[in-house]
Amino acid sequence: MDTKNFKVNSEKSLVEWIGRKVTGAHNGTIEVKEGTFAFEDNTLSSGKFVIDTRSIKILDIDDAETNAQFAGHLASDDFFNSDQFPDAIFEITHAEPGDNNSYYVTGDLTIKGITHSITTTLQIVKTDNAAVLDTKIVIDRTKFNIKFRSSNFFTNLGDTLIYNNFDLNIHLVAEAQ
């Protein structure tokens, strides 16, 4: 069996996030800290990547003071508790090849020390020297103890309600080791 390992290049990789609320949405980026993927006989066999919750940036708020205040709130215990839980981790537990460079992937997602299994479709373009992986993961934040302004836990929120699901658009560039 021929195994080839790839290491994620943090400088070339990026996670974009979108969170929605009744009155609109916010978006930004999160840095990828590290990651690895392995292919056995040119088929994805395992993988793991880590994002740094302390690196959350907000792209849609131009006012520096408001942006810093919001970033601080996202880092607080109301959301990601970044001081205590700086890493969010996704580890593939099963990957099944599909058509057109896609894989049907099940993995363990850990946020705030809480782990849940999720499924997604992963697009991979691979050469001998590099692999580019793209996926979109929709996450129910309440499963990870992120309850702030959630209708699951609070009533009469009106236009201050924040929807439970948020999106992570993940772009990873990995280089052969």
From TrEMBL:
InterPro entries, alphabetized: Lipid/polyisoprenoid-bd_YceI, TTHA0802/YceI-like_sf
Superkingdom of origin organism: Bacteria
Domain Lipid/polyisoprenoid-binding YceI-like: from-to ranges: 5-175
Regions annotated as coiled coil: none
Entries under Gene3D superfamilies matching the protein: Lipid/polyisoprenoid-binding, YceI-like
Pfam family, one: YceI
Stated name of the protein: Polyisoprenoid-binding protein YceI
Species of origin: Chryseobacterium wanjuense
